[in-house]
Amino acid sequence: MGYLWTVILAAAILVLVSGGASAHEVRPAYLSVQEEATNEFSVLFKTPMQGNARLALTALFSGRIEMVTPIVSQPTGDAMVQTWRVRTLEPLAGQTVLIDGLQNTMTDALIHITLANGNNWTARLTPGEPSALIPESQSTWSVFTTYFGQGIEHIAFGFDHLLFVAALMLIVRDWRKLVKAVTAFTVAVAHSITLTCATLGWVTLPSRPVEVMIAISIVMVAADVVRMERGQLSLAIVRPWIVAFAFGLLHGFGFAGALVDLGLPQGDIPLALLSFNIGVEIGQLVFIALLLTLVQTVRRFATIPSAAAVASAYAIGSVAAFWSVQRLDAMFL
After folding, report:
1. 146 inside domain
2. 185-189 LR contacts (CB < 8 Å, sep 24+)
3. Measuring CA to CA, which residue among 189, 178, 211, 194 is closest to residue 288?
4. H or E, element range at 59
5. Can you list the alpha helix ranges (DSSP code H) found in the chain?
6. Which of 20, 41, 58, 189 could form an S-S bond across to 159 if both were Cys, CB 3.0 to 4.6 Å?
7. Last residue of a domain, one of 139, 165, 200
8. pLDDT of residue 16
9. In this structure, are 167 and 263 located in the same domain?
10. CA end-to-end span of the chain, whole Å?
């Protein structure tokens, strides 16, 4: 099944064309509004940073609002966190919330509002729909679909995670082993363990070293592809599901960092975790299915050179090595 070089080639082209120098380029804004006293709210607004400047986004409400405290801004690496308190002169439920400037970006905004009566509302705003009406309450299905969509979108733009999966497919030539490896990495527990523990703060790792290790893990798998083509053995070649599980734990920290950036609805944390994770897993499985379909199509019209697998491994390894150096440099800036 040396034809799987097409998987790597397609994934590498996707990364290079998109200009994906690092994972998770599309980072959403996050607005949290919590009612602390009657008609008085604490506001947290997190916006992505581009260099030393944050995206020009402003949170606006349609009703009359008074500022109780000034806005306090605190940069946190790749985002700007702003906090303040407001008093509403009209009920917040029934008002329209607008993220002004979102229509001029390529990112989304996640909105979470908690009322004193215990009702929660979570919504995802997009450049095409930068505003929404705040309801009295929200259904469980709405929370699920919001975080499920974020999970799918995150894996769709998580180029390093996709390249790791593609490289793993290049090693696993038997469909039974492929099912085991993919299950270990995506479906069973590898992501779920670290995603849950890191998101809830039970286990924490600095994000920059994690991103470096994710890039290095791709280089290691690419190197094992070359070893396999030379007739050598390694743990990834003999027991790919073990390596997939171990690296899945590491990659799970990367997803957890993204979910923490999104913010979690305090009244629906288990549901948000579950739906985000399901979105990630389905996104990965769709990615695998699309590439395998592409491979089968290409095989009907082309003869695959014998050295294609090694060339593909070098291509993906080179991209991952570039990421490793780039992220190491960012660590020490």
Report:
1. no
2. 185/244, 185/245, 185/247, 185/248, 185/251, 185/284, 186/248, 186/280, 186/281, 186/284, 186/285, 187/281, 187/285, 188/245, 189/245
3. 178
4. strand 58-61
5. 5-18, 140-156, 159-171, 175-182, 190-199, 207-229, 235-238, 240-262, 269-299, 308-331
6. 20
7. 139
8. 46
9. yes
10. 44
For residues 278 and 195, the answer to whether their CB atoms sit within 8 Å is: no
Task: Convert 18-37 to b/e letters by CB count within 10 Å (16 or more is b).
Answer: eebeebbeebbbbbbbebee
Other C-beta atoms lying within 10 Å of the C-beta of residue 225: 25
Number of domains the chain contains: 2
Domain ranges, residue 80: 29-139
Q: CA angle 297-301-302, nearest 5°?
A: 105
Cβ-based burial of 297 (10 A; exposed 0-12, middle 13-18, buried ≥19): exposed
Both tokens assigned to 121 = 């509302």
Residue range 52-98, pLDDT digits in tens:
777 889 999 999 999 999 999 988 767 889 999 999 988 888 899 99
Low-confidence ranges of the chain (pLDDT < 70): 1-27, 50-51, 77, 137-138, 173-180, 182-207, 235-241, 255-267, 303-306, 332-333
pTM equals 0.66
Does 38 fall in a domain?
A: yes
Shared domain check, 183 and 117: no
